[in-house]
Amino acid sequence: MRKLRLNRDLPWVTIVVMAICIIIFALVHFAGFDNSSESAILYGAYYKAFIVAGEWWRLITVGFVHVQVWHIVMNLAAFWSLGSILEHIYGRLKYAVILFVSILSGSLFLFIMTGNEVSVGLSGGLYGLMAAEIYWVVKNGGLQNPSVKNPLIETVVINAAINFVGGVAWQAHIGGFIGGLILAVLFDTDPSVASLRKNTAVSSVILCVVLGYFVSRSCTIPTDEQYIGSDYRILEYEKEHGLSKHAENMATRLDEIYGTTILSSYIKGE
């Protein structure tokens, strides 16, 4: 049996991401909010209104935020299963890029295909990793081995079926899968796939342009999707915990987006 060398062979990117997810999960449940969605937003959940107001980092931090116990257990179990293998296959840097770009692409698909929703979880990244695994297995002839092919098919079928369950952000899953697949091809330096890699690079540029166009067209929040009460409680919490300047700036931006002056008046005490 081969021993793992402590500083080189442990999947440290995977371990660190899992640790961050667990820490944020704990923080979400100790924030003091009665509404778990508001707690999740406070600690980095995807929330379109706050993203449009300037907190674009939520497109990435959404992957670290979980609320339900079953959700974080399932996601981290799947993450360890995929990550502990793929981090060694692709190397830490490429693996991290695949993970975070998949989360980002999943969030962008969610941004252009849904309204002002709150979303949490690592699913976009997981689907990207799954795509990278599928590419690697197919590329290396793994489908010729039933012990590899059958579990892979089962995984794909199960994850595809999950998208038909209510409340699942399937848009993020699609976006994450596409992002992971593109990077898996681009990171493949095998000369035999040079043509595929070139076509994928061109396609990815086109995809980025298309996503950029639709993102720019999706930066409005309809009146019936404005949750000013929740926005106020979150910003007030930030103000009371040393982030008053940020809270005031966000209140101003949200008022501009909503076409009101309510949040600025309350947060600034005017």
Structural notes for this entry:
With 270 residues, the chain is an all-alpha fold. The protein contains 14 helices and 2 strands; from the N terminus they run H-H-H-E-H-H-H-H-E-H-H-H-H-H-H-H. It has a two-stranded antiparallel ribbon.
In the sheet with the most strands, the strands line up as 1-2
Give the low-confidence spans. 1-7
What is the H-and-E element order?
A: HHHEHHHHEHHHHHHH
Distance between the termini: 69 Å
State the main characteristics.
270 residues, mainly alpha, two-stranded antiparallel ribbon, 14 helices, 1% strand, globular, disordered N terminus
Describe the SSE topology.
Layout (H helix, E strand, L loop, with lengths): L5 H4 L2 H17 L7 H7 L3 E2 H5 L5 H4 L7 H22 L1 H22 L4 E2 L3 H17 L6 H17 L7 H17 L7 H23 L11 H13 L3 H15 L3 H7 L2
Antiparallel strand pairs: 1-2
